[in-house]
Structure formats: C-alpha cells, structure tokens
C-alpha cells in the first residue's frame, strides 16, 4: 500500500480528489470539473452533505480554538487538504499569536496549493506525507522540529481517518502518533460515521470507491476507540454540531443528521 | 453610475418623497419623528435577522473573531445604502463583496439576503436598486473569487505536476544510473523472450556493448553446457508458474569464448498479476568457475599426462554400473607398457615421464575419437573404458588400436624408444559383474597377455581368470616361500651339436606351492619381478646352482657341465650384482669360467647404461654372458656389438615356428640361419632353444648352430638325473644313440 519515498506520487487530475471535493462542498472553487461532478452526484444522493461539511469545518474551528485557549501553540494538521478559509493557523493565532502549524497531506495538488498560500508564513510548513506511512511522517524534519521541544502539540485528524481502511490498521497509526507526542498533547478527531443516517452511508461509501481514497465509515464505538490512551474532553465523542457549540441554537434540531462524529482527547 | 447620480442629489424627481417642499413644518416634524422611530425599529429588526442569517450555514464555520465584525460591517453598509442621502447603492455592493471574501458563496445566502433587504422599508423607492446593487456586488466578487481560485488550483496542479515530473525525472535518472552503472549485468525482456534493454555490464559480459544485445532473443542464448532444467524453469517463469529461478549458466560471448554466469531471473507481473516482463541479473563467475573446474580437473586428472586419473576412471565406471539397462555391455582394455621399467631405470625418471606423456597422447588421440575414455591408473598402466560396447569385436578393436598406436618408436631427444604394450581385454554385460571384479579380471587378463609374450592383447577367459586369481595367491605367498624352502632348482641339458655332448645345463627355478603344486618360473618370476622378491630369489638361485655346479665339478672334473643361470633385468641392474657373483663363486669355489649368466635383450638399453659396467666387470672376472630369448625383444644390434657377451640363445619360438603350418617354414629357417650367421659374424656362439626333434637338431647342426636345448635333448631334471647323465656319458664315452646322428 505505502509507496517507498523514492517513488514520486502521481497527480491524477482525471480522478476526483477528496481535498478538492471537500473544497467544493464548502463553496470553494479550488476544484476541477471531475471533482464537481462527483460532489454534485453526492449532493444529489445526500443533499445534507454541504451542511455536514460545514459542520465539520465548524468543529475544526471550535476544537482548534479550544486547544489554543488551553495554551497549545503547536499544531500538526494531518490531512489538511486545501485550507482556503478558517485554516488552523488563522484560528489558532487569534489566541496564540506565535502558533506554529505543520500541514500534512498526501495529495500533491493540495500540498502545492498549501505551499503557494503559505509561502510567506514562516511559522507554517507544508509536508507531503502519507498518514499510513506513519514512521516516515514522524521522521520528516518539519514534524521532528515541531515535536522536538517536548511542548504539547495538537494533532488534528479532521475528516481523514475515514480514508484509512481497516487493512491499513488505523489503531496502529494512532498508537505510533501517540507514542511520538509529548504529554499534555491534544488529539482533535472527526470521522464520517454510520451513526445517524445509516440509509445514506452505503451509497456514499460506494461513491468514494472510485476515488484514490475510498471511504470507511465507522461507528461511534470504533471512533471512540481511536482515543485510546487519551482522556476524552467533555462532551466526549458526539455528533459534529454537539461538540462544544458556540451557543445552544447552533446545534440545530437534528444534530444526528450531521452524521460525522467528533471528539477531543488529551494525553496525560 | 449610481454613485454619481446620488452625489448630484439636489432634490429632484428621484429624491425621497417625504422631502417634498411646500408641506407644513410641524406636520413635517411629526412625521419625521414618527418615521425615525419606525426606521429605528426596522433597522434593529433587520440587523437581528441579518446576523441570524449569517450565523447559520457557512457562518458556523467562521470564527467569531471574523464573523461578528463581518456581520456588523455588512449590516452597517446595507443600512447606509438604504438610508443615507444621497443613495449610494455601491455600499450594498461592498457588503455583498465582503460576504464573498469570507466565502459566503452559497447561492441560497444571496436569496436569503435579497429577501431580507427587500423586506425592510426603505425611502424613495430605492429598494430594488439596493437589492440589485447587493446582488451585483456579491456576484461580481464571487466571479472574481472563482476565477482567482481556479487560477490558484490550476497553478497548484501545475506546480504539483512539475514537481512530480521533476521527481520522476530524478527518480528515473537515479534508476537509470543504478541500471547503467550496476556492476552486475541486468537485462529486461518481455514474456515472448524479446530482450528490451540491457545495461553496460551485461553487454560487457557478452563481450560487446548494450547495443549488441538489441534484437537478440532469450532463446538464442542456449549453450550446450546448460544445466538440465534451466530452460524448463525459464518456461515456467514466463508462463507465470514461478516467480524466479537461479542457475549457473554458460553463454557464448561475441568472440565465441564461453562466459560462465550466476543467473537470476525474476518475473514482473502487471496489476492484474499477468506476466509482463522478465528481469535477468547476471554475474560473471567465469574465473570462479574456471578455478573450480581446475580444482576438479586436478582431482580427477593425472598431472603428468593430463589423462583422467584412477579416481576419475572408477567414478565413471561406477556411474556406469549405477542403473544399468539389462543388456548394456561395456569393455575394458587394461594396458601395461612393455619394458617401461627399463627406460625408467636406465634413462631416468624424466625420460620415463616424457615417454608416458607421449604414450598418453597417442592413446588419447587414437581412442577418444572412438568415444572411449582413456585413463592412467598409475605407473605405466593405462585403461580404456568402452561404454555401451557392441560386443567383443569392438573391445578387441580398441585393444588393437592401442597396440597400433604404440607401434612407432617414441623419439625423445636422441633416443628412439621402441615401446610396446600388453593389453588385457574384458567385454561383459554390465549386469553380470561389478566394477571391482571387472577391473581385477582385466588386470589378470593383462598378465596373461604379458605371459603369452609381450606386445599382444588377450581376451578375458573365465577359466584362465580363475587360474590367474590363484596366481594372486602366489604373489601373496611368495615372500614366505623362500624362507620355508619351497623353491628348488631343475637343470636342463644343453648339448653341443657338433659332439652331441651335454656341455652345459640351465638352472631353472621351481616352486613347490602347497596348494598349486610345482610352478615353473614362467608362473611366478613375473610376480617376483613385480614384488621385488626377484632379488633374494635370484641370489638364492645363484648360490644354489653354483653350489650344485661346484659339486659336479668336484665329482666329474672337466666333464662337469657349464652352469647357465638366468639373470632378471632387475638383478642385472642391481649395483650389488658383481659383489654377489664374486662372493658366491668364492664361497662355492666354482670357477668363473664354469658360470654363464643369461641376460635378456632389455637388460641393456644403451651405450651409457650403468648395467654395462657391471656386465664388463663380470666378464673381467671370467664369467661368460649369453643373451637369452634373442630376437623377441630389444634387438638393438648396435648395442649388441658393445655387449660383452659370448653367446646368443635363439628364442624357442623361432624353432617352434618351423612347425607351425600357418607359417612359412622356408622363411623361418632362413631367419634362424640368419641369426646364426649374425652371431658368428659378431664372434658369438649360438644356442638354439626349443629343439624338439632330431631333424631340427640335425638341420641346426648343419647350419653351424653351436649348441641346442629342448625336449629332444632332455627336459629340465633334478640334479641327480643330471649327475646320472654325466656319469653315463662318461661311461659310454659315446654320443647318445637317441640323438640319431653320427659324430
């Protein structure tokens, strides 16, 4: 599965790409027709999808804010995609002006785009790495540098673990990450879930099968298990809008329709 | 443009209706206050609805630090556009653009926003223009943003592609460098056996450049020495039945030389698992292979002659016996050179070695083309192995080829060495014997050939073999036999043809073997020579015979016969010979003139021969010398002249041949006559052996032959019998009437 470092990844623009499809859901134009076709198809089957994506983005924003308010100024955003607005460094710096962020993605286009955007930001780095090749990811100089001082780090796995199949052993990946993190570090995780809308999950998964990143939706139980070794921050693993909403109204009447689940854990 | 129109806004047709001049001031003030109150309330309501709208949807993802100022600013802009004089619709456009800047790109938002804007009460009918300006501002900004983002993602995609291409180029360059400069030969081929690419090292292995391999097909690379199984493995590989194989494989280089390689071939499959390419890696192991071959060659070949050695011969023979087909036959020719010891002893080992080398080459050249294996077993023994022999004729033909190959003398330096051989031929069905028994039988057959006279082949005979096996018992027992007194001596009369008197006797050693009975010298002297027992035995015979002869002299005076004793080659060449003879004569008191020693032609092989000195010393002592079996062996007449001999004994076969119906009797007599006159020319007396009839005796006498012996004149006899004959002759003082001729 994992390719050796010395074999360059391809840029297959003939296939929809998760990062660009996500951008389209969020109303961006950092995407190509092939991405839009896929996104339109998905929305046709599941009209709530843009809302779900926005809810996910909102969770990332709140969780980043939480981490920054907790005093964390080092962020490792794995599967960062195309950070067009509300990027982690922007949110974090509202509370931690010197916040450093290492963005990681395996899609060369997403990485190139992130580098173009962040070219003038000395505190942000972009790394082309594959989460599934965890040892390689952790060995990258930018990542080592981020982890080196032993200060707590917020690791963000926002809507990325559902692109890791069971065959790639996500539990092992998480264990390796955990072992590399200093104490006091925080795990921010959101994940596509079977909960809430089991009727939609099947067709949506099959749609992603044609992409380079097939989708594996998981149950609350399975998602909660990813926090092994962490202390879950209140309210635990919940539907996306339910995690520390800005106010009660913003949760909305049917949080379960936002089928993603999210949580934050702290490493003691 | 709206703005300029607004700015030019002195009250006019398009001005707000409430500002019309000419109304009562009070009324106007009241209305204004009332209106202001209404506007105040309406504005608050719009702000609340505007804020709520922006918070839902996309706004949920926008952080409060951005969202709150954005909400306030856009609401403010819209308020100003709705209320301020002059009317500046562009402010609404700015609000729309600000939303786009924060990615409020959802078209639903535009619908909601226009609805809100339309719902609020605005002065002077500016509502539609206000909504239009907002929508236009939003749309224009969205278009700009979309184009900007498309450009950005395009740029990112191009950048990424370039980086990937660059990485691919670097990667390809790296692989190309790896491929090109690898010390190991690497070749890529398709599954049809077409060679697609090879690196420099592979080209060099084949003695050329990589370009020389283009168009070559894998199947062209067959070599006759390919390990069995290599091509089967290849077929399995390209058909996908195996992933890789490894062999040591030879190839022809472009210059025709052979290069040995350690070859590994592996299969590359496509994504569906179907065989796609084959990758061959070749390491030149020629030097290692040659070294191994040399070591193997050294272990299996005789360093002197280069022939397969004893070990290799037995290995091959045993392999033949491993899984024999029922009727498969094989043949052995066991070859032993005649007279090699003499060459070795007299001319030195170096000469002997050179002779062996020449013999080996001749045998190899004569027999290998026939498909037979020639091996050197050691010393001057060679063996020819015939695999899948077609019958006795073929084995005999091989033996004849051996003898024919050695007919011509071998020239080494100044020496022309006549070398002959004896061959024991064995031809059997493999199933009837074992390797060990076969070789022993061939060896024994060889001895029979030797005994039958040199320079001939003898075919294996089971009965003879059984007898010969018992001869082995002879050689084993012989050393002890001398100590046990199992040897004794008979004497054969030698008669002067002119007088008919018995003037001499030849001492002939006998062995009374406990199991085999009495054995003649022809049955064990050969073995004694081989084992070295000939030395003590010869000494014993000389002592015994001299003692006997001295006894006769003592008893019969000058009528006692002269004693003839055979001297084996080995004895003659022994440094102690002269001393032995001298000591024996002294101890027995026999006069040297009463002793004649018989040597064979092969005793002396050249004018520088050390043996010659000893012979001269003996003659000087007064002992006379005779050449035994003259005409059957080393008849170098030039040397004969230099030998200090006084007598020739014509071999018994010459006289025996006179009665062979297959042979020309007339010619036979002429040969004998020639030998006699030759001897006389050299000043030598002549003794004929094997004389069995009166007529022959007479004819020999007429020819001038001096002496004769044979059954006609008396068989070898005990000393007492000899003594009786001397006494009788003495009494009668007349020729034995049985001799049948008048003196």
UniProtKB/TrEMBL annotation, chain A:
InterPro entries: SAM-dependent_MTases_sf, SAM_dep_MeTrfase_SAV2177_type. Residues 248-268 are annotated as: Disordered. It holds the Pfam family Methyltransf_19. This is S-adenosyl methyltransferase. It comes from Kitasatospora phosalacinea. The lineage of its organism: Bacteria, Bacillati, Actinomycetota, Actinomycetes, Kitasatosporales.
From TrEMBL, chain B:
SUPFAM superfamilies: EAL domain-like (SSF141868), Nucleotide cyclase (SSF55073), PYP-like sensor domain (PAS domain) (SSF55785). CDD domains: EAL (cd01948), GGDEF (cd01949), PAS (cd00130). Residues 171-241 form the PAS domain. Residues 245-297 form the PAC domain. It holds the Pfam family GGDEF. Residues 1-31 are annotated as: Disordered. SMART domains: EAL (SM00052), GGDEF (SM00267), PAC (SM00086), PAS (SM00091). Residues 16-26 have a biased composition (Low complexity). It comes from the Bacteria. Residues 471-730 form the EAL domain. InterPro entries: Biofilm_reg_signaling, EAL_dom, EAL_sf, GGDEF_dom, Nucleotide_cyclase, PAC, PAS, PAS-assoc_C. PANTHER family: BIOFILM ARCHITECTURE MAINTENANCE PROTEIN MBAA, DIGUANYLATE CYCLASE DGCP. This is GGDEF domain-containing protein. It comes from Kitasatospora phosalacinea.
């Amino acid at each position: 599965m994992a390719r050796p470092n010395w074999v360059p990844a391809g840029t297959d623009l003939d296939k929809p790409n998760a990062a660009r499809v996500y951008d389209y859901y969020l109303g961006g134009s950092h995407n190509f027709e092939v991405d839009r076709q896929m996104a339109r198809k998905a929305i046709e089957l599941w009209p709530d999808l843009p809302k779900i994506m926005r809810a996910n983005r909102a969770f990332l924003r709140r969780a980043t804010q939480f981490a920054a308010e907790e005093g964390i100024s080092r962020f490792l955003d794995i599967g960062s995609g195309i950070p067009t607005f509300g990027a982690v460094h922007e949110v974090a710096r509202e509370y931690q002006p010197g916040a450093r962020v290492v963005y990681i993605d395996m899609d060369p286009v997403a990485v190139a785009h992130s580098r173009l955007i962040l070219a003038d930001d000395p505190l942000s780095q972009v790394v082309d790495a594959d989460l599934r090749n965890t040892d390689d990811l952790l060995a990258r100089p930018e990542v080592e540098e981020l982890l080196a001082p032993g200060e707590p780090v917020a690791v963000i796995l926002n809507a990325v673990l559902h692109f890791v199949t069971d065959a790639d052993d996500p539990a092992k990946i998480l264990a390796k990450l955990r072992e590399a993190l200093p104490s006091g570090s925080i795990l921010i995780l959101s994940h596509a879930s079977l909960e809430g809308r089991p009727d939609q999950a099947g067709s949506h998964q099959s749609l992603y099968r044609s992409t380079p990143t097939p989708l594996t939706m998981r149950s609350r139980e399975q998602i909660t298990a990813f926090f092994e070794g962490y202390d879950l921050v209140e309210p635990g693993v919940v539907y996306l809008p339910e995690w520390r909403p800005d106010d009660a109204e913003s949760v909305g009447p049917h949080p379960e329709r936002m089928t993603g689940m999210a949580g934050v854990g702290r490493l003691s | 443009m709206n703005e300029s129109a607004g700015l030019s806004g002195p009250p006019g047709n398009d001005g707000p209706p409430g500002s019309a001049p000419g109304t009562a001031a009070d009324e106007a003030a009241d209305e204004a206050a009332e209106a202001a109150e209404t506007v105040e309330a309406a504005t608050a309501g719009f702000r609340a609805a505007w804020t709520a709208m922006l918070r839902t949807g996309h706004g949920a993802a926008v952080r409060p630090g951005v969202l709150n100022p954005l909400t306030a600013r856009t609401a403010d802009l819209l308020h100003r556009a709705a209320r301020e004089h002059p009317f500046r619709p562009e402010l609404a456009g700015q609000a729309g653009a600000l939303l786009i800047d924060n990615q409020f790109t959802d078209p639903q938002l535009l619908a909601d926003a226009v609805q809100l804007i339309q719902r609020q009460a605005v002065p002077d009918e500016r509502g539609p223009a206000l909504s239009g300006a907002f929508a236009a501002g939003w749309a224009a900004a969205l278009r700009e943003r979309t184009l900007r983002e498309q450009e950005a993602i395009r740029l990112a995609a191009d950048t990424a592609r370039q980086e990937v291409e660059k990485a691919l180029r670097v990667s390809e360059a790296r692989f190309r460098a790896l491929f090109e400069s690898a010390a190991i030969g690497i070749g890529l081929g398709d599954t049809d056996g077409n060679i697609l690419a090879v690196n420099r090292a592979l080209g060099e292995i084949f003695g050329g450049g990589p370009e020389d391999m283009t168009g070559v097909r894998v199947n062209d690379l067959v070599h006759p020495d390919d390990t069995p199984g290599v091509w089967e493995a290849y077929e399995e590989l390209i058909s996908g039945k195996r992933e890789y194989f490894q062999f040591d494989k030879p190839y022809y280089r472009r210059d025709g030389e052979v290069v040995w390689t350690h070859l590994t071939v592996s299969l590359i499959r496509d994504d569906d698992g179907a065989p796609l390419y084959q990758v061959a890696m070749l390491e030149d192991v020629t030097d290692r292979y040659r070294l191994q071959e040399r070591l193997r060659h050294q272990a299996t070949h005789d360093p002197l002659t280069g022939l397969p050695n004893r070990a290799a011969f037995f290995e091959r023979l045993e392999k033949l016996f491993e899984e024999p087909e029922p009727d498969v036959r094989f043949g052995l020719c066991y070859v032993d050179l005649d007279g090699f010891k003499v060459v070795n002893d007299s001319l030195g080992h170096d000469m002997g070695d050179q002779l062996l080398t020449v013999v080996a080459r001749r045998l190899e050249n004569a027999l290998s083309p026939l498909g037979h294996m020639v091996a050197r077993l050691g010393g001057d023994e060679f063996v020819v192995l015939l695999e899948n022999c077609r019958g006795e004729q073929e084995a005999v033909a091989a033996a004849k080829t051996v003898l024919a190959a050695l007919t011509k003398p071998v020239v080494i330096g100044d020496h022309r060495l006549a070398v002959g051989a004896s061959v024991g031929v064995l031809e059997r069905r493999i199933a009837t014997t074992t390797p060990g028994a076969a070789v022993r039988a061939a060896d024994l057959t060889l001895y029979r050939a030797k005994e039958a006279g040199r320079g001939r082949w003898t075919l294996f005979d089971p009965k003879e073999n059984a007898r010969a096996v018992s001869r082995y018992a002879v050689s084993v027992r012989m050393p002890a036999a001398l100590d046990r007194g199992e040897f004794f001596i008979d004497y054969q009369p030698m008669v002067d043809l002119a007088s008919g008197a018995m003037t001499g006797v030849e001492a002939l050693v006998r062995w009374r073997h406990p199991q085999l009975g009495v054995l003649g010298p022809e049955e064990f002297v050969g073995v004694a020579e081989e084992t070295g027992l000939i030395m003590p035995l010869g000494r014993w015979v000389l002592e015994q015979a001299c003692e006997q002869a001295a006894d006769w002299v003592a008893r019969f005076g000058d009528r006692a016969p002269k004693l003839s004793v055979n001297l084996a080659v080995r004895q003659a060449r022994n440094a102690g010979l002269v001393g032995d003879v001298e000591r024996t004569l002294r101890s027995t008191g026999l006069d040297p003139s009463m002793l004649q020693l018989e040597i064979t032609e092969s005793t002396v092989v050249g004018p520088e021969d050390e043996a010659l000195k000893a012979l001269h010393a003996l003659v000087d002592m007064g002992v006379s010398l005779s050449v035994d079996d003259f005409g059957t062996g080393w008849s170098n007449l030039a040397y004969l002249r230099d030998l200090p001999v006084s007598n020739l004994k014509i071999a018994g076969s010459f006289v025996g041949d006179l009665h062979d119906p297959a042979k020309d009797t007339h010619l036979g007599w002429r040969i004998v006559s020639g030998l006699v006159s030759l001897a006389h020319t050299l000043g030598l007396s002549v003794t004929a052996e094997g004389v069995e009839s009166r007529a022959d005796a007479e004819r020999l006498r007429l020819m001038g032959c001096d002496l004769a012996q044979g059954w006609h004149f008396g068989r070898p006899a005990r000393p007492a019998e000899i003594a009786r004959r001397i006494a009788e002759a003495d009494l009668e003082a007349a020729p034995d009437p049985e001799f049948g001729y008048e003196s």
